[in-house]
Amino acid sequence: MNKRLLLVFTKNPQLGKVKTRLAKSIGDEKALFIFQKLIEKTAQTIGAISVHKSLYYSEFIENGDPWDAQVSEKKIQNGDTLGERMSTAFEDGFEKGFEQIVIIGTDLWDLESSDIEQAFKALETNTAVIGPATDGGYYLLGLSQLMPEVFKNKHWGTASVLNDTMNDFKEREVALLKPKNDVDYYEDLRTFPELLNLLDQ
Q1: Residue 201: what pLDDT?
Q2: How far apart are CA 152 and CA 24, in angstroms?
Q3: Cβ contact 165:159 at 8 Å
């Protein structure tokens, strides 16, 4: 059995419910369009990686989506906070016998297959691997053993998440990937002209 598991957390692409901060600048319809492009790009990125892949939707399972050919299974996130939902998914993976588990979201335009492969490689010699986001959070987290404390006592969605998480790893070996930027605001869009140009087509 391949002992590596990639978890992908995503929201259901619904008008007015995704990329709400971005929507304040460009409107709900364009924000949904950008979100769908980010999903397509992420699905394409993980397609090249030969590990077990589980997609976790926020509310309900969609079929006939860009993930159909890319993931091993689709599930629904379970828990009240983001921390609880991630913790449950990691716990489930370790219980099933996976030894290296990495989680990503669908907010990055410049995430590459090699970033994810590098994360799994890092878990061969580290307890954890983290991809810092430039807003103070993280875009990728990987663990080679369950650490429930990583998912507790965090102000999710704020600039303190990365620091607070790094404090949990004080006694452990942790690898860092290169920082990347989530696409949450219009300014973020401007750093990716390719994505911004899609709006004008």
Answers
A1: 67
A2: 30
A3: no
Which residues are CB-contacts of 95 (< 8 A; sequence separation ≥ 6)?
none
Other Cβ atoms less than 10 A from the Cβ of 21: the count is 13
Q: In 10 A of CB 6, how many CB atoms?
A: 25
Our CA dihedral for 168, 9, 28, 188, rounded to 10 degrees, sits at 50
Say if residues 174 and 126 touch (Cβ distance below 8 Å).
yes
At residue 136's C-alpha, the angle toward residues 131 and 141, to 5°, is 25
Place of tokens 């992908």: 8
State which residues of the chain have pLDDT below 50: 1
Per-residue tokens: 168 = 């949990």
- Residue 136: what residue type? G
Buried b (16+ CB within 10 A) or exposed e, 36-61: bbbbebbbebbeebebbbbbbbeeee
Sign of CA dihedral 71, 62, 92, 147: positive
Which helix (DSSP H) or strand (DSSP E) does residue 81 occupy?
A: none
Tell me, what's the pLDDT at 153? Answer: 93
Could you give the CA distance from residue 5 to residue 196 in angstroms, rounded to a whole number? 32
Encoded tokens for 159? 């600039």
The architecture that CATH gives domain 4-199 is Alpha-Beta Complex (3.90)
